[in-house]
Amino acid sequence: MVNPAQEEFDYPSLKVLTINNHKGGVGKTSLSKIITEYFLNKGKRVLGVDIDPQCNFSARFVEMRDDGSPPIHPEFNADDPDWDELPYPPPGYWSISELFKIGYVEPYSTQYQNLKFIPSHKTELQEFLDQVEKINREEDIVNLMRTIFLDEYYQDEIDVVVIDTPPQASSLTASAVRAATHLLIPTEMQEDSVSGMADMAQLWETENRSRIGDRLNLVGVLPTKYDKSSAAQRNTYDDLNAEGSYFSDKLITPPMRYLQTYANSSSTYANPQSLFEMHDKTPAKIEAEQFCDVIYKRVFSDER
Ligand SMILES: Nc1ncnc2c1ncn2[C@@H]1O[C@H](COP(=O)(O)OP(=O)(O)O)[C@@H](O)[C@H]1O
Ligand SMILES: [Mg+2]
Q: How many domains does the chain have?
């Protein structure tokens, strides 16, 4: 029997890729940028969403101010009654905090024609994160992003949303998971990182138990900062890949190796800004094209 409320919750065609691991420093933000660039190069209309108060994903595509707040929105007009409807004086910018606070946000245009962006806000989002457990709106917040993306604007104007998440688990991250059609889990091949993978497996399964029609697809687990010359990392990789291991058929190859090029290209001053504008023989570019292609195919294949 079809539950109408549940069916209504399905996106007809929009893809939402959430990149998450409760651990920090595993390459979530670097991958968010690379995957966004890859999808753009494939001609997709992308919406980048940053829910990390660190704002590093935002800073790649939006000219953030020094205090970690977004710039004035180009369409901002203090006399526009829509801006007056905000429950506080219009600050002239939109960030992901407005989405969580008032359930509406106006995405930014970027230097890429097919890329819209909802930036984070360093102080406001951090404040919100600190309060969120106390305000008794958790259930609300967990379902919020999903409800927003059901809006006609996102369904019609966007092909894929890429969401970068902060390191710790919170109801904001839960919201990004609830909104997702696809989940990508990057992980280092250190022993302690892999032990945290049990939590990620549980998150995926728990989310799917709460859904009826629209499963959360696990795009895969991408080994990151992989150093083949380390025996410990090779062992960890082999364990994860071993037949019968929970994620064995979910490992994405090639892994993202530990390469200085990735670290360099994450700088705001990197030139070129995109890895994909580098020389064709750049090793990081070659492997990134390969793992992005696996991700691309899994996100845009029709199996759900
Ligand atoms: N494959 C890689 N090789 C080398 N350095 C990397 C790689 N991926 C990410 N880094 C660097 O590691 C740091 C953490 O990466 P980041 O993407 O910010 O992780 P997260 O978002 O999970 O915290 C950054 O300084 C980034 O430049
Ligand atoms: Mg990050």
A: 1
